[in-house]
């Protein structure tokens, strides 16, 4: 199948330089990478992952132009494998673009193929569906409480977003009391959302959200059986290749996934045993962490941070689970 023509000039050994974002071809197909080093007709590339390449696959909150970075592995490739230039922005830079072209991408997290983890491993959640922000999905903001919602989640057509919007919770709180029932002072809507009243609703073009900090004293999560398998299989996979052959990170990750799927229950047992031991260590460390009061101290500080910001999210996504603040 012929490759589509690139609008930007084709890179050469003279035009490619360190720090460029490029589209290049490897054994796994065409992917985006960042140039780490250039030597004559060779370029050292650090590949970006597509959502389809990570352990959880593409999710509803992944943008169509979203990529995941990585910092561990890079490999040498011929400069002729580079087919075009592109640009990988931060999420904030991507939202500020007046016109998103086919060469524009964004990255908000890095992916570690060895552990299956993400950095940062916590991102804000929004809307009733409590999912991370996706710039491709139109959102509307409540003028009273400041919460933002996906248009489809609140039955609003994306091409008919109202100039003013109030969420259902705010409408119920401000509804007149029933006859014979008197509101207490703390239940008045003016006190529930004093700083948000009168602000016009708008579509979300910038997150404007304060990232939640991670507790450095919290114990590190235990590894899964798959994580232990990848550690062993990756070394074996690279050792079996000829010294002259190169393997991209994406190629190795896919090979690990295929090999893992072919294993039976008996073959997986050694890795499952390692995972059980590691989980026991994690649970023990977690109990000590909670017993020492460090978790309560961190949660208290986190809730204080939420009260200081006007747009703090309700929950946070850690890559595996949705974490809700207590209360």
In words, what does this structure look like?
By secondary structure, the chain is α+β, with helices and mostly antiparallel strands. The protein has 3 domains: 1-121, Bromo adjacent homology (BAH) domain (SH3 type barrels, Roll), CATH 2.30.30; 122-210, 2-Layer Sandwich (Herpes Virus-1), CATH 3.30.40; 212-308, DNA Binding (I), subunit A (Orthogonal Bundle). It is built from 7 helices and 14 strands. The strands form 3 sheets. Strands 1, 2, 3, 4, 5, 6, 7 and 8 form an 8-stranded mixed β-sheet that branches. It has a 4-stranded antiparallel β-sheet with strand order 10-9-13-14, with no helix packed on it. A two-stranded antiparallel ribbon has the order 11-12. Helix 1 links the parallel strand 6 and strand 7. Helix 4 (225-239) crosses helix 5 and helix 4 (225-239) crosses helix 6 (265-291). The protein is globular, with a radius of gyration of 24 Å. The N and C termini lie far apart (56 Å). Mean pLDDT is 76; it is low at 1-6, 180-211 and 310-327. Residues 219-290 bind DNA. This is BAH domain-containing protein. It holds the Pfam family PHD.
Order of helices and strands: EEEEEEHEEEEEEHHHHHHEE
Relative helix content: 25-40%
Q: Gap between N and C termini, in Å? A: 56 Å
Per DSSP, what share of the residues sits in E-state strands of 2 or more residues? 15-25%
CATH superfamily of the largest domain: Bromo adjacent homology (BAH) domain
Mean pLDDT: 76
Radius of gyration: 24 Å
Sequence stretches where pLDDT stays below 50 over 5 or more residues: 1-6, 180-211, 310-327
Q: What is the CATH fold-level name of the largest domain?
A: SH3 type barrels
Structural class: alpha+beta
The CATH top-level class label of the largest domain: Mainly Beta
Number of strands: 14
Number of domains: 3
Tell the overall outline. globular
Enumerate how many helices there are, as a single number.
7
Architecture (CATH level 2) name of the largest domain: Roll
The biggest sheet, with number of strands, parallel, antiparallel or mixed sense and barrel status, is: 8 strands, mixed
